[in-house]
Design goal:
Strand content: over 45%
Helix content: under 10%
Low-confidence stretches: 2-27
Largest sheet: 17 strands, antiparallel
Distance between the termini: 29 Å
Shape: globular
Order of helices and strands: EEEEEEEEEEEEHHEEEEE
């Protein structure tokens, strides 16, 4: 269900203090997932992705994300120049980045009664002027999970169906003009915890990271001739704590490292 690419590209250089806006609901505390009933001695600090040709075994791409934490054990930064700032309630306020040979970016997070309502992504030219803005909106269900997202100016919106733990078991894209379903994707999950969720990446992208590890995903329908039909099955190897150290799927290997 999740496409292989999620770049947490994001952000704003520290030279743009005007991007920082106070949160009106700073007194609201983050909500804890009711299914998170276990703690772990070790936490994820690096993920390495390897994409390869299934027929020849030739490696096509290797990249990694490394995670760093502050004195409060919160995600502080991600390799490649990404920095996370928090508001007084401990929620993500900004994700900023200054990447060599790439535009500076900032994600600004807005809340209402403790729930994220939108993320504004601002992209800046080298001279500091605004080049482009994208606004992504969020709606939540009664259990506190993301139910709907849409981007201002786009021609579709996405609806999510979630299980009792908030895992994304179905997502649908609908064309706004006629409410026609453009894409339908489904997934199943194991009962083991996703280490990326555990370090707080779901606070940065709440519609992407689920609390449990995905087992099978399949795009049932998509008005896109380029997609490959058929289910993707994920196989895992775990450490003694029950956290994955490897995730294998067709043409893709993910390795997890803990500290």
């Amino acid at each position: 269900m999740k496409l292989f690419s999620l770049l947490i590209a994001i952000c704003c250089a520290l030279i743009f203090p005007s991007c920082h806006r106070p949160d009106e609901n700073a007194e609201m505390a983050p909500v804890t997932n009711p299914c998170l009933s276990q703690t772990f001695q070790k936490r994820l600090y690096k993920v390495m992705h390897t994409a390869f040709d299934e027929t020849t075994g030739k490696i096509n791409l290797v990249y990694q994300d490394q995670y760093f934490f502050d004195t409060n054990n919160r995600l502080d930064s991600i390799s490649g120049g990404h920095k996370i700032r928090y508001n007084a309630a401990g929620r993500v306020d900004q994700v900023i980045s200054s990447i060599p040979n790439a535009p500076n970016q900032v994600k600004q997070y807005f809340y209402n009664n403790g729930q994220l309502t939108k993320i504004e992504t601002n992209i800046y030219n080298p001279d500091g002027t605004l080049s482009w803005k994208l606004v992504k909106n969020f709606e939540w269900d009664a259990q506190g999970f993301v139910h709907k997202t849409w981007v201002n100016g786009s021609d579709y919106y996405t609806l999510y169906t979630r299980d009792a733990c908030g895992n994304d078991i179905q997502s649908q894209d609908f064309i706004i003009s006629d409410n026609r379903e453009n894409r339908l994707s489904v997934a199943t999950y194991s009962d083991t915890y996703n280490p990326e969720y555990l370090i707080g990446l779901h606070e940065i992208d709440p519609d992407y990271y689920s609390i449990h590890n995905e087992s099978i995903s399949e795009i049932i329908h998509w008005d896109n001739a380029d997609f490959l039909p058929g289910p993707i099955e994920y196989q895992y190897e775990y450490n003694t704590d029950g956290l994955p150290v490897k995730r294998m799927s067709a043409g893709h290997l993910v390795a997890y490292f803990y500290e």
